[in-house]
Specification:
- The chain is α/β, with parallel strands linked by helices and about 450 residues long.
- Helices cover about 30% and strands about 25% of the residues.
- The chain has 15 helices and 23 strands.
Length: about 450
Protein backbone atom coordinates (compact mmCIF):
# COMPACT_ATOMS: atom_id res chain seq x y z
CA UNK A 1 0.00 0.00 0.00
CA UNK A 2 1.15 3.54 -0.77
CA UNK A 3 0.52 6.19 1.92
CA UNK A 4 1.05 9.89 1.27
CA UNK A 5 1.33 11.79 4.55
CA UNK A 6 0.34 15.45 4.78
CA UNK A 7 2.27 17.26 7.51
CA UNK A 8 4.88 14.51 7.60
CA UNK A 9 7.58 16.46 9.44
CA UNK A 10 5.55 16.93 12.59
CA UNK A 11 6.77 14.64 15.34
CA UNK A 12 3.55 12.60 15.42
CA UNK A 13 3.02 12.34 11.67
CA UNK A 14 6.70 11.60 11.13
CA UNK A 15 6.34 8.73 13.58
CA UNK A 16 3.30 7.44 11.69
CA UNK A 17 5.34 7.52 8.48
CA UNK A 18 8.21 5.61 10.09
CA UNK A 19 5.87 2.92 11.42
CA UNK A 20 4.13 2.55 8.07
CA UNK A 21 7.50 2.21 6.31
CA UNK A 22 8.58 -0.50 8.76
CA UNK A 23 5.29 -2.30 8.13
CA UNK A 24 6.27 -2.59 4.48
CA UNK A 25 4.20 0.20 2.97
CA UNK A 26 5.41 2.69 0.39
CA UNK A 27 5.46 6.06 2.12
CA UNK A 28 5.82 9.55 0.72
CA UNK A 29 4.86 12.86 2.28
CA UNK A 30 4.88 16.60 2.25
CA UNK A 31 5.19 19.51 4.64
CA UNK A 32 5.58 23.26 4.57
CA UNK A 33 8.48 23.25 7.02
CA UNK A 34 11.08 20.54 6.59
CA UNK A 35 13.75 20.64 9.30
CA UNK A 36 15.74 18.23 11.53
CA UNK A 37 15.58 16.04 13.44
CA UNK A 38 12.43 14.64 11.83
CA UNK A 39 13.44 15.35 8.23
CA UNK A 40 16.76 13.58 8.81
CA UNK A 41 15.02 10.56 10.32
CA UNK A 42 12.55 10.30 7.42
CA UNK A 43 15.20 10.58 4.71
CA UNK A 44 17.24 7.88 6.45
CA UNK A 45 14.21 5.59 6.16
CA UNK A 46 14.02 6.16 2.42
CA UNK A 47 10.89 8.33 2.61
CA UNK A 48 10.67 10.94 -0.15
CA UNK A 49 9.69 14.42 1.05
CA UNK A 50 8.02 17.16 -0.94
CA UNK A 51 8.15 20.79 0.15
CA UNK A 52 4.72 22.43 0.26
CA UNK A 53 1.16 21.35 -0.50
CA UNK A 54 0.79 21.87 -4.22
CA UNK A 55 -2.17 19.98 -5.66
CA UNK A 56 0.13 18.79 -8.46
CA UNK A 57 1.43 16.16 -6.02
CA UNK A 58 -1.62 14.06 -6.95
CA UNK A 59 0.01 13.45 -10.32
CA UNK A 60 3.55 13.62 -8.99
CA UNK A 61 4.96 12.37 -5.67
CA UNK A 62 1.57 11.08 -4.51
CA UNK A 63 0.54 9.44 -7.77
CA UNK A 64 -0.73 5.96 -7.08
CA UNK A 65 -1.28 6.61 -3.35
CA UNK A 66 -3.99 4.34 -1.89
CA UNK A 67 -4.70 6.58 1.07
CA UNK A 68 -3.78 10.06 2.22
CA UNK A 69 -2.98 10.38 5.93
CA UNK A 70 -3.83 13.93 6.93
CA UNK A 71 -2.12 15.61 9.88
CA UNK A 72 -4.02 17.90 12.21
CA UNK A 73 -2.00 20.92 11.05
CA UNK A 74 -3.77 20.68 7.69
CA UNK A 75 -6.90 22.83 7.41
CA UNK A 76 -9.60 23.33 4.83
CA UNK A 77 -8.31 25.59 2.10
CA UNK A 78 -5.02 23.69 1.86
CA UNK A 79 -4.56 23.17 -1.92
CA UNK A 80 -3.61 19.52 -1.69
CA UNK A 81 -6.37 18.67 0.80
CA UNK A 82 -8.95 20.39 -1.39
CA UNK A 83 -7.75 18.41 -4.41
CA UNK A 84 -7.99 15.16 -2.43
CA UNK A 85 -11.55 15.95 -1.36
CA UNK A 86 -12.57 16.99 -4.89
CA UNK A 87 -11.15 13.78 -6.35
CA UNK A 88 -12.95 11.59 -3.84
CA UNK A 89 -9.73 9.80 -2.90
CA UNK A 90 -9.43 7.89 0.37
CA UNK A 91 -8.09 9.78 3.36
CA UNK A 92 -7.79 9.21 7.10
CA UNK A 93 -6.19 10.80 10.15
CA UNK A 94 -2.93 9.68 11.73
CA UNK A 95 -4.54 8.49 14.99
CA UNK A 96 -7.26 6.57 13.16
CA UNK A 97 -4.76 4.89 10.82
CA UNK A 98 -2.60 3.93 13.79
CA UNK A 99 -5.55 2.60 15.81
CA UNK A 100 -6.92 0.47 12.97
CA UNK A 101 -3.67 -0.94 11.61
CA UNK A 102 -1.26 -1.13 14.58
CA UNK A 103 -2.83 -0.66 18.01
CA UNK A 104 -5.83 -2.96 17.59
CA UNK A 105 -3.87 -6.05 18.66
CA UNK A 106 -1.48 -4.39 21.14
CA UNK A 107 -1.41 -3.73 24.88
CA UNK A 108 -1.25 0.06 24.64
CA UNK A 109 0.53 2.09 27.31
CA UNK A 110 -0.42 5.75 26.82
CA UNK A 111 1.22 8.80 28.40
CA UNK A 112 -0.97 11.90 28.63
CA UNK A 113 -0.61 15.31 30.26
CA UNK A 114 0.09 18.93 29.45
CA UNK A 115 3.82 18.59 30.14
CA UNK A 116 6.41 15.82 30.04
CA UNK A 117 4.74 13.51 27.54
CA UNK A 118 7.73 12.87 25.24
CA UNK A 119 10.16 12.35 28.12
CA UNK A 120 7.86 10.05 30.09
CA UNK A 121 6.95 8.08 26.96
CA UNK A 122 10.63 7.63 26.13
CA UNK A 123 11.42 6.61 29.73
CA UNK A 124 8.66 3.99 29.70
CA UNK A 125 9.65 2.63 26.29
CA UNK A 126 13.29 2.38 27.42
CA UNK A 127 12.32 0.47 30.57
CA UNK A 128 10.28 -2.04 28.58
CA UNK A 129 13.04 -2.37 25.99
CA UNK A 130 15.71 -3.05 28.62
CA UNK A 131 13.35 -5.59 30.22
CA UNK A 132 13.33 -7.53 26.95
CA UNK A 133 9.69 -6.79 26.12
CA UNK A 134 10.53 -5.39 22.66
CA UNK A 135 7.93 -2.59 22.69
CA UNK A 136 6.80 -0.60 19.71
CA UNK A 137 6.51 3.10 20.41
CA UNK A 138 5.60 6.52 19.09
CA UNK A 139 7.21 9.44 20.90
CA UNK A 140 6.76 13.15 20.21
CA UNK A 141 10.51 13.54 19.89
CA UNK A 142 13.60 11.53 19.07
CA UNK A 143 14.79 9.47 22.04
CA UNK A 144 18.59 9.46 22.11
CA UNK A 145 18.74 5.83 23.22
CA UNK A 146 16.65 4.69 20.26
CA UNK A 147 17.79 7.36 17.75
CA UNK A 148 14.24 7.36 16.34
CA UNK A 149 10.86 8.70 17.44
CA UNK A 150 8.85 5.62 16.47
CA UNK A 151 9.21 1.95 15.77
CA UNK A 152 7.05 -1.08 15.09
CA UNK A 153 7.91 -4.46 16.60
CA UNK A 154 6.37 -7.91 16.82
CA UNK A 155 6.06 -7.58 20.60
CA UNK A 156 2.68 -7.27 22.31
CA UNK A 157 3.29 -3.82 23.85
CA UNK A 158 3.07 -0.38 22.29
CA UNK A 159 4.00 2.81 24.18
CA UNK A 160 2.48 6.01 22.83
CA UNK A 161 2.51 9.69 23.61
CA UNK A 162 -1.19 10.44 24.06
CA UNK A 163 -1.77 14.00 22.90
CA UNK A 164 -4.94 15.93 23.74
CA UNK A 165 -4.69 18.05 20.60
CA UNK A 166 -7.38 17.53 17.97
CA UNK A 167 -7.17 14.64 15.51
CA UNK A 168 -7.69 16.19 12.07
CA UNK A 169 -9.72 18.72 10.07
CA UNK A 170 -12.54 16.16 9.92
CA UNK A 171 -12.27 14.87 13.50
CA UNK A 172 -12.07 17.38 16.32
CA UNK A 173 -11.81 14.83 19.11
CA UNK A 174 -8.49 14.60 20.96
CA UNK A 175 -6.01 12.20 19.39
CA UNK A 176 -5.88 9.97 22.47
CA UNK A 177 -9.52 8.84 22.27
CA UNK A 178 -8.49 6.60 19.36
CA UNK A 179 -5.86 4.60 21.26
CA UNK A 180 -7.93 2.48 23.71
CA UNK A 181 -5.05 2.07 26.20
CA UNK A 182 -4.83 -0.59 28.89
CA UNK A 183 -2.24 1.37 30.89
CA UNK A 184 -2.50 5.17 31.16
CA UNK A 185 -0.23 7.77 32.72
CA UNK A 186 -1.88 11.10 33.56
CA UNK A 187 1.10 13.31 34.38
CA UNK A 188 -0.46 16.73 34.86
CA UNK A 189 -3.14 18.97 33.42
CA UNK A 190 -3.49 22.70 32.90
CA UNK A 191 -4.84 25.05 30.28
CA UNK A 192 -3.18 24.94 26.87
CA UNK A 193 -4.09 24.79 23.17
CA UNK A 194 -6.13 27.99 23.30
CA UNK A 195 -6.71 27.70 19.56
CA UNK A 196 -9.03 24.70 20.04
CA UNK A 197 -10.08 24.64 23.72
CA UNK A 198 -12.09 27.57 25.15
CA UNK A 199 -11.19 26.77 28.75
CA UNK A 200 -9.70 24.21 31.13
CA UNK A 201 -13.05 22.47 31.58
CA UNK A 202 -13.10 21.59 27.88
CA UNK A 203 -9.70 19.88 28.18
CA UNK A 204 -10.77 18.03 31.32
CA UNK A 205 -13.76 16.70 29.39
CA UNK A 206 -11.48 15.29 26.68
CA UNK A 207 -9.28 13.63 29.31
CA UNK A 208 -12.36 12.05 30.80
CA UNK A 209 -13.35 10.73 27.38
CA UNK A 210 -10.06 8.83 27.33
CA UNK A 211 -10.58 7.59 30.90
CA UNK A 212 -13.90 6.14 29.75
CA UNK A 213 -12.08 3.96 27.19
CA UNK A 214 -9.76 2.25 29.72
CA UNK A 215 -10.95 -1.30 30.52
CA UNK A 216 -11.98 -2.38 33.99
CA UNK A 217 -8.73 -4.33 34.43
CA UNK A 218 -6.70 -1.50 32.98
CA UNK A 219 -4.74 0.85 35.20
CA UNK A 220 -4.54 4.63 35.42
CA UNK A 221 -1.32 6.06 36.91
CA UNK A 222 -2.26 9.60 37.96
CA UNK A 223 -0.43 12.52 39.54
CA UNK A 224 -2.03 12.64 42.98
CA UNK A 225 -0.97 16.25 43.51
CA UNK A 226 -2.80 17.61 40.48
CA UNK A 227 -6.27 18.92 41.38
CA UNK A 228 -7.34 19.17 37.75
CA UNK A 229 -6.71 15.46 37.23
CA UNK A 230 -8.61 14.63 40.37
CA UNK A 231 -11.62 16.40 38.85
CA UNK A 232 -11.22 14.33 35.70
CA UNK A 233 -11.39 11.08 37.69
CA UNK A 234 -14.25 12.40 39.83
CA UNK A 235 -16.40 12.48 36.70
CA UNK A 236 -16.24 8.68 36.73
CA UNK A 237 -13.55 6.01 36.69
CA UNK A 238 -14.04 2.28 36.14
CA UNK A 239 -10.41 1.10 36.17
CA UNK A 240 -7.65 0.47 38.69
CA UNK A 241 -6.00 3.69 39.89
CA UNK A 242 -2.54 4.28 41.35
CA UNK A 243 -1.49 7.76 42.43
CA UNK A 244 2.02 9.20 42.53
CA UNK A 245 3.52 12.40 43.94
CA UNK A 246 6.69 14.00 45.18
CA UNK A 247 7.43 12.99 48.76
CA UNK A 248 7.59 16.68 49.72
CA UNK A 249 3.99 17.27 48.64
CA UNK A 250 1.42 16.93 51.45
CA UNK A 251 -0.04 13.44 51.52
CA UNK A 252 -2.88 13.03 49.04
CA UNK A 253 -3.25 9.32 49.50
CA UNK A 254 -0.61 8.56 46.89
CA UNK A 255 0.57 4.99 46.38
CA UNK A 256 3.94 6.02 44.90
CA UNK A 257 6.29 8.72 46.18
CA UNK A 258 9.72 9.95 45.20
CA UNK A 259 12.02 12.06 47.37
CA UNK A 260 14.53 14.69 46.31
CA UNK A 261 17.33 12.11 46.66
CA UNK A 262 15.48 9.75 44.29
CA UNK A 263 14.17 7.33 46.93
CA UNK A 264 11.01 5.64 45.70
CA UNK A 265 8.35 4.17 47.94
CA UNK A 266 5.25 2.16 47.14
CA UNK A 267 2.65 2.03 49.87
CA UNK A 268 5.26 3.52 52.20
CA UNK A 269 7.74 0.68 51.55
CA UNK A 270 11.13 1.59 49.99
CA UNK A 271 11.58 0.21 46.47
CA UNK A 272 15.00 1.58 45.58
CA UNK A 273 16.43 4.87 44.37
CA UNK A 274 16.50 6.74 41.08
CA UNK A 275 20.24 7.20 41.21
CA UNK A 276 22.08 7.68 38.94
CA UNK A 277 19.71 9.52 36.62
CA UNK A 278 20.86 11.84 33.82
CA UNK A 279 17.81 14.13 33.71
CA UNK A 280 17.68 17.11 36.03
CA UNK A 281 14.74 18.65 37.84
CA UNK A 282 11.91 17.58 40.13
CA UNK A 283 9.59 17.35 37.11
CA UNK A 284 11.81 14.70 35.55
CA UNK A 285 11.89 12.70 38.78
CA UNK A 286 8.08 12.61 38.65
CA UNK A 287 8.21 11.61 34.98
CA UNK A 288 10.50 8.73 35.91
CA UNK A 289 8.29 7.68 38.83
CA UNK A 290 5.25 7.55 36.55
CA UNK A 291 7.17 5.41 34.06
CA UNK A 292 8.26 3.00 36.82
CA UNK A 293 4.67 2.65 38.01
CA UNK A 294 3.36 2.07 34.48
CA UNK A 295 6.05 -0.53 33.75
CA UNK A 296 5.08 -2.42 36.88
CA UNK A 297 1.58 -2.86 35.41
CA UNK A 298 3.15 -5.02 32.68
CA UNK A 299 5.15 -6.94 35.31
CA UNK A 300 8.50 -5.14 35.14
CA UNK A 301 9.97 -5.15 38.69
CA UNK A 302 10.90 -1.74 40.09
CA UNK A 303 14.55 -2.74 40.45
CA UNK A 304 14.73 -3.52 36.71
CA UNK A 305 13.10 -0.21 35.87
CA UNK A 306 15.62 1.70 38.00
CA UNK A 307 18.52 -0.16 36.36
CA UNK A 308 17.18 0.86 32.95
CA UNK A 309 16.70 4.50 33.97
CA UNK A 310 20.29 4.68 35.18
CA UNK A 311 21.35 4.37 31.51
CA UNK A 312 18.70 6.63 29.97
CA UNK A 313 20.21 9.49 27.96
CA UNK A 314 17.20 11.66 27.23
CA UNK A 315 15.18 13.02 24.33
CA UNK A 316 16.39 15.42 21.69
CA UNK A 317 15.25 19.00 22.25
CA UNK A 318 14.59 18.36 25.94
CA UNK A 319 17.44 20.23 27.66
CA UNK A 320 19.64 18.82 24.92
CA UNK A 321 23.27 19.96 25.08
CA UNK A 322 24.07 21.33 21.63
CA UNK A 323 27.64 22.35 22.33
CA UNK A 324 30.12 24.46 24.28
CA UNK A 325 32.14 27.18 22.56
CA UNK A 326 34.53 29.57 24.26
CA UNK A 327 33.24 28.51 27.66
CA UNK A 328 29.62 29.22 26.66
CA UNK A 329 27.20 26.29 26.76
CA UNK A 330 24.13 26.05 24.53
CA UNK A 331 21.06 23.92 25.23
CA UNK A 332 17.96 23.25 23.14
CA UNK A 333 14.58 22.73 24.78
CA UNK A 334 11.02 22.35 23.49
CA UNK A 335 9.53 24.48 26.28
CA UNK A 336 6.71 26.59 24.84
CA UNK A 337 4.30 27.02 27.76
CA UNK A 338 5.05 29.24 30.79
CA UNK A 339 4.98 26.27 33.16
CA UNK A 340 7.43 24.33 31.01
CA UNK A 341 9.65 27.41 30.66
CA UNK A 342 9.69 27.86 34.44
CA UNK A 343 10.51 24.25 35.38
CA UNK A 344 13.17 24.01 32.68
CA UNK A 345 14.88 27.17 33.87
CA UNK A 346 14.61 26.05 37.50
CA UNK A 347 16.22 22.70 36.64
CA UNK A 348 19.05 24.43 34.78
CA UNK A 349 19.55 26.85 37.67
CA UNK A 350 20.01 23.97 40.12
CA UNK A 351 22.52 22.48 37.72
CA UNK A 352 24.65 25.58 37.04
CA UNK A 353 24.42 27.38 40.38
CA UNK A 354 25.28 31.08 40.21
CA UNK A 355 26.36 31.05 36.55
CA UNK A 356 24.46 33.34 34.20
CA UNK A 357 21.54 31.89 32.23
CA UNK A 358 20.55 33.53 28.94
CA UNK A 359 17.01 32.48 28.00
CA UNK A 360 16.29 32.64 24.27
CA UNK A 361 12.59 32.27 23.58
CA UNK A 362 10.41 31.87 20.49
CA UNK A 363 6.69 32.00 21.45
CA UNK A 364 5.62 29.78 18.57
CA UNK A 365 2.80 27.51 19.74
CA UNK A 366 -0.71 28.59 18.78
CA UNK A 367 -1.48 29.32 22.43
CA UNK A 368 1.57 31.56 22.78
CA UNK A 369 0.99 33.27 19.43
CA UNK A 370 -2.50 34.25 20.57
CA UNK A 371 -1.08 35.77 23.77
CA UNK A 372 -3.31 33.67 26.01
CA UNK A 373 -0.44 32.94 28.40
CA UNK A 374 1.41 36.25 28.13
CA UNK A 375 0.64 37.32 31.72
CA UNK A 376 2.49 34.26 33.01
CA UNK A 377 5.57 34.82 30.86
CA UNK A 378 7.52 37.19 33.12
CA UNK A 379 7.16 35.01 36.26
CA UNK A 380 8.20 31.94 34.24
CA UNK A 381 11.51 33.63 33.34
CA UNK A 382 12.50 34.41 36.94
CA UNK A 383 15.63 32.24 36.90
CA UNK A 384 17.04 33.81 33.73
CA UNK A 385 19.65 36.55 34.02
CA UNK A 386 18.96 37.79 30.49
CA UNK A 387 16.00 37.15 28.19
CA UNK A 388 16.01 37.33 24.38
CA UNK A 389 12.60 36.97 22.75
CA UNK A 390 11.77 36.63 19.07
CA UNK A 391 8.71 38.81 18.44
CA UNK A 392 7.83 37.74 14.91
CA UNK A 393 4.37 36.47 13.87
CA UNK A 394 2.68 37.29 17.17
CA UNK A 395 -0.71 38.84 17.93
CA UNK A 396 0.85 40.71 20.88
CA UNK A 397 4.01 42.65 21.66
CA UNK A 398 6.44 40.76 23.92
CA UNK A 399 8.40 43.98 24.35
CA UNK A 400 5.48 45.41 26.28
CA UNK A 401 4.93 42.23 28.28
CA UNK A 402 8.62 41.93 29.22
CA UNK A 403 9.02 45.65 29.95
CA UNK A 404 9.12 45.01 33.71
CA UNK A 405 12.39 43.09 33.21
CA UNK A 406 14.07 46.31 32.10
CA UNK A 407 17.53 45.85 30.60
CA UNK A 408 17.39 42.12 31.32
CA UNK A 409 15.10 41.63 28.30
CA UNK A 410 15.65 42.19 24.58
CA UNK A 411 13.01 41.57 21.91
CA UNK A 412 13.14 41.79 18.14
CA UNK A 413 11.14 40.81 15.07
CA UNK A 414 14.45 40.39 13.23
CA UNK A 415 16.10 37.02 13.91
CA UNK A 416 19.50 38.27 12.75
CA UNK A 417 19.31 41.20 15.17
CA UNK A 418 18.32 38.85 17.98
CA UNK A 419 21.29 36.63 17.18
CA UNK A 420 23.64 39.64 17.23
CA UNK A 421 22.32 40.70 20.65
CA UNK A 422 22.82 37.22 22.12
CA UNK A 423 26.38 36.89 20.78
CA UNK A 424 27.29 40.37 22.01
CA UNK A 425 25.94 39.68 25.50
CA UNK A 426 27.32 36.16 25.98
CA UNK A 427 30.43 35.69 28.12
CA UNK A 428 32.54 32.67 29.06
CA UNK A 429 30.78 30.69 31.78
CA UNK A 430 27.29 31.55 30.49
CA UNK A 431 24.58 28.99 29.73
CA UNK A 432 22.28 29.76 26.79
CA UNK A 433 18.93 27.99 26.91
CA UNK A 434 17.04 28.13 23.60
CA UNK A 435 13.31 27.39 23.94
CA UNK A 436 11.00 26.81 20.99
CA UNK A 437 8.71 24.10 19.62
CA UNK A 438 9.93 24.78 16.09
CA UNK A 439 13.15 25.11 14.12
CA UNK A 440 13.69 28.72 15.29
CA UNK A 441 15.51 29.57 12.06
CA UNK A 442 18.38 27.22 12.90
CA UNK A 443 19.46 29.57 15.67
CA UNK A 444 21.31 26.85 17.62
CA UNK A 445 23.88 26.16 14.89
CA UNK A 446 24.14 29.85 14.05
CA UNK A 447 24.93 30.62 17.69
CA UNK A 448 27.60 27.94 17.84
CA UNK A 449 29.21 29.25 14.65
CA UNK A 450 29.10 32.90 15.71
CA UNK A 451 30.42 32.16 19.19
CA UNK A 452 33.24 30.10 17.69
CA UNK A 453 34.25 33.08 15.53
CA UNK A 454 34.05 35.36 18.54
CA UNK A 455 36.30 33.06 20.57
CA UNK A 456 39.11 33.14 17.99
Amino acid sequence: MHLHVLGICGTFMGGIAAIARTAGHTVTGCDANVYPPMSTQLVSLGIALTEGYDAAQLEGAAKGANVFVVGNAISRGNPLLEAILDSGRAYTSGPQWLAETVLRDKWVLAVAGTHGKPTTTALLAWILDRAGLDPGFLIGGVAMDFAVSARLTAGPFFVIEADEYDTAFSDKRSKFVHYRPRTVVLNNLEYDHADIFPDLAAIEREFHHMVRTVPRRGRIIVNGGDENLQRVLARGCWSEVERFRAAAVPDTGADWTIAADGTIKLGGAPQGALNPFALVGAHNRLNALAAVAAARHVSVPVRESLAALATFRGVKRRMELRGTVGGITIYDDFAHHPTAIAVTLEALRRQVGEARILAVLEPRSNTMKLGTMKAALVPSLAEANLVFCYAGNLAWDPGVVLKSLGERAYTSTDLAALLDAIVTSAKPGDHILVMSNGGFGGIHDKLLARLASKAR
